[in-house]
Amino acid sequence: VTAAPETRTPVKPWIARMPLGMPPPTPPEAVAQLHLNECPVPPSPKVVAAVAEAAARGNRYPDARAARLSRALADRAGVPADRVVVGNGSDEILRLLAAVTLGPGDSAVMPTPTFPTYRVSTTALGAEAIAVPLTPDGANDVPAMLAAVRSDTRALFVCQPNNPSGTPVPPAMLERLVAETPEHVLLVVDEAYYEFNVADGAPEVLGLLARRRAPWAVARTFSKAYGMAGLRVGYAIVGETALAEALLKVKQAFNVSSMAQAAALAALEDEAYATSVVEACRRERERLVEGLRRMQYRPLPSAANFVSFDYGRPCGPLIAELASKGVMIRDWRDPAWETWVRITIGSAAETDAVLAALEAAR
Length: 362
Ligand SMILES: Cc1ncc(COP(=O)(O)O)c(C=O)c1O
Description:
This protein is α/β, with parallel strands linked by helices. The protein has 14 helices and twelve strands. The mean pLDDT is 96.
């Protein structure tokens, strides 16, 4: 970690202290892009056509409320449309949820290691991030997270399944979480990998949350199963209209471009595409897991489009060696877990490439 540059700007001290963590770029010569949990295939042709059509009307501002898309998502989820808010990726949704609940003097409970946005948005708002280590098999540790809640806690972030481990919270623990997260805390369930988790037989968190009498929100995305990471559409389904309204108050007016809105609507009309992505991903995940096991690694049980395992020694040199061959994979970006590697599920050719590169690096 390098020292923060001196500044005369009145940057908030808690922001000056934050590390600068940017997602790594993808080199143009990469043969396997398995470091960003992207979808290996382009979006549905119907999505691409919808984007082109919307681009032709790009002189007009997009619908600030994303009303058509919100309604389509609400209908699918079986909730009223005024409880759905669309964002510039689910990353924005998570930041908005933090923005409306957290400030100096507040705290938020979250797992560690996990998706960095919970910590980044909490700290950027001057609130305290209470990070609770994962269970040994990589799941969010629900009893420990519940025990970490304080009277100043305003939000509890659950990553279901967790990135970078891939492990989902077991159903009984989810029930506990929904029942026992105190009423003064917004329970945020980040379901970025929802479509993969459900295909693996996970219960619908939304069904459980519908019975919760205290605040809750679910965050989902078109980035993964719909292959739209570069188009930037995510959404929140929330427990009460007042929370949706709070998110609308603080979001940028035109946060989701007209191309992104049209893309998401087209994607919802081509569910067969997402289903085929999820099925292909599950097949390749199985192949990757088997290949890793043949090399005596023990991958964690993943319900997402990536797999993690303990390499047994610091994985920096391995990642650099694979990168030199154009095979991009990722570490867990946490010094406490420097031996852990995460590999996104890609195409069959990418599975072959990463297995061959790992074998050669042994
Ligand atoms: C757990 C989790 N949440 C949220 C996101 C954000 O996704 P997006 O902003 O593309 O919707 C990601 C992306 O990798 C993620 O892994």
